[in-house]
Amino acid sequence: MSLLDVKDLSVSFGRHRTRVLDHACLSLEPGQRLGFVGASGSGKTVLASAIMGLLPENAHVEGSIVFQGQELTALTDRVFSAIRGRNLSMVFQEPMTALDPTMKVGRQAAELIGLHRETSTMATRQRVEQIFDRVGLDHASRIADAYPHELSGGQRQRVVIAMALMNNPAMVICDEPTTALDATVQAKVLSLLDEELAGVNAACLFISHDLGLVSRICTDVAVIHAGKIVERGSAAQVFMNPQHPYTAGLVATASIDAVEPGTRLPVIEDFFDPRQEQ
Ligand SMILES: Nc1ncnc2c1ncn2[C@@H]1O[C@H](COP(=O)(O)OP(=O)(O)OP(=O)(O)O)[C@@H](O)[C@H]1O
Ligand SMILES: [Mg+2]
Q1: Which of 115, 138, 216, 273 has its CA 20 to 30 A from that of 233?
Q2: Per-domain residue ranges for the chain?
Q3: Ligand nearest to the CA of 208
Q4: Ligand nearest to the CA of 58
Q5: Residue nearest ligand 1's atom 4 by CA
Q6: CA 112 to chain centre
Q7: What confidence tens digit (pLDDT) does each residue in 161-218 have?
Q8: Is 18 exposed, middle or buried (0-12, 13-18, 19+ CB in 10 A)?
């Protein structure tokens, strides 16, 4: 049995039921790293939010998401929150999304352990400082006593990665985890993420529009275009022998190891005329 099995997942919004995810299927084995690539607005975050049970109320969800043998679409909020942050966690693109601006980051991390583990306050504080130290945050004690706005973007993202991994999750969803950072910090945070995921042998769904990043940390790739998963395979297979015109376009435009930040991803119409595809 796979760790995660998403079957025919469709998501639509609002009264008109505008469908933004269309019969998406994907699975993840324990420890596997799957890059999830697609242009802006193609449905990447919607899929991640559906898995995390974080879609807004006006979202209409059809299909199935089975994680560790449990159907997630049927769970109540209370049951879901016991899974979230423990077996399943997420690193958001913008770390402020995951942090409470009114609370010191050490306390936020401690609450996360307290929520999911039986730990005394003293031991919790020690564990928080240990894990901050491990993600390369110098002066872990001082960082723990800082509010999110007192930290740099790179420090905040390290805190969020530490928090996402501190309960040894079976799976971490990373939604463009380094996009908001400058290139040097991005490279450091990426290799940290790589090590930390390997350290707890967590599976990872790594969302990005950046093929270069995906090829650095993922073994497999799925490509989404306009709400549909159009291609799936090993990273080497997808990059060397893309089957779908959209993927071929991505690979042709962006060399695997050097995608310029800010490059516009091609749209499918750049490569072929959809009216001719039957
Ligand atoms: N709460 C919502 N209500 C209505 N439409 C939504 C909502 N959230 C997302 N959408 C729509 O769903 C589509 C997919 O959005 P999504 O956020 O998944 O894109 P994305 O692939 O993550 O893009 P980006 O790379 O820019 O983050 C978009 O057309 C978006 O407008
Ligand atoms: Mg997104």
Answers
A1: 273
A2: 27-54+74-276
A3: 1
A4: 1
A5: 13
A6: 19
A7: 989 988 889 999 999 988 877 888 888 888 888 988 998 899 999 999 877 788 888 9
A8: exposed
